[in-house]
Specification:
This protein is of the alpha/beta class. It is built from 7 helices and 5 strands; from the N terminus they run βαβαβαβαβααα. It has 2 domains: 126 residues, Rossmann fold (3-Layer(aba) Sandwich); 31 residues, no CATH class. The protein has a 5-stranded parallel sheet with strand order 2-1-3-4-5, sandwiched between helices.
Length: 197
C-alpha cells in the first residue's frame, strides 16, 4: 500500500523508511506544505504518518484540512509526536487524526498501527463497494417498476409467449402423458427417462 511519511527531521525520516519501506510504497514529504500537496494529487496515499511539528503546516493542521475536504476525508492519518501528555493526544485526535505514535517509534508498534490503518481502509472500501452494489440493484428495480407502470408486457405474458414458441417448435413425446392427459414436450422427465431405455 502507498504510504505518505511527512517528517522534517532527517534522523526520524531515515528510521521510518527503514521500518516501513520493505512492505510499503513510500511517498516522502519534508514539510507540512509538501505533505498537503502530496495528499491532494490523483492516486494520493490513503494512509499518512504526519509529524506534529513541521515547517509550513503542522500535522494537526493537515488533519483538519483533510477532514474538511470531502474527497480526502476517508484517509487514515497517524500523528507522530514527541508530545505524549493526555491533553496533547486528545488535541491531535480532535484535529482529525485516527491514531498517534510517540517518538522515537518502536518498530513493532509502528508496523502494528499501520496495519490497523490498512485494515480500516480495506473495510471502508468493502462498505463502499457493497453500497455501490446496493444502489445499482435499487436502480435496476426502479427501472423494472417503471417498465411495468409504462404498460410493458408483464413477465407472465412473456412466459406464455415462450411456451407457445416451444409448443410450435418441439416434437411431443408419444408414449408419455401427464395426469391430466396432456402430452409433455421435449424436456419432461418422462421423455428423458424414455430416451435412456
Amino acid at each position: 500500500m502507498k504510504l505518505l511519511i511527512a517528517e522534517d527531521d532527517v534522523f526520524f525520516l531515515k528510521l521510518l523508511k527503514q521500518i516501513l519501506a520493505p512492505d510499503h510504497e513510500l511517498v516522502l514529504a519534508r514539510d507540512g506544505s509538501e505533505a498537503w500537496a502530496a495528499l491532494q494529487r490523483p492516486y494520493a496515499p490513503q494512509l499518512a504518518i504526519l509529524d506534529w511539528v513541521m515547517p509550513g503546516l503542522s500535522g494537526p493542521e493537515i488533519c483538519r484540512r483533510v477532514r474538511a475536504s470531502a474527497p480526502l476525508s476517508s484517509m487514515y492519518l497517524i500523528i507522530l509526536t514527541a508530545k505524549n501528555s493526555a491533553a496533547d493526544i486528545v488535541s491531535g485526535l480532535r484535529a482529525g487524526a485516527d491514531d498517534y505514535i510517540t517518538k522515537p517509534p518502536v518498530p513493532e508498534e509502528l508496523r502494528a498501527r499501520v496495519t490497523l490503518g490498512e485494515r480500516v481502509l480495506a473495510l471502508q472500501d468493502a462498505v463502499e463497494t457493497q453500497s455501490a452494489l446496493a444502489r445499482q440493484a435499487s436502480e435496476r428495480e426502479r427501472r423494472l417498476r417503471e417498465g411495468f407502470d409504462a404498460g410493458r408486457p408483464p413477465v407472465q405474458d412473456n412466459l406464455r409467449e415462450v411456451a407457445a414458441y416451444l409448443s410450435r417448435h418441439i416434437e411431443p413425446v408419444d408414449d408419455c402423458s401427464d395426469s391430466r392427459g396432456e402430452t409433455p414436450y421435449l424436456l419432461s422427465t418422462c421423455s428423458l427417462e424414455n430416451s435412456h431405455s
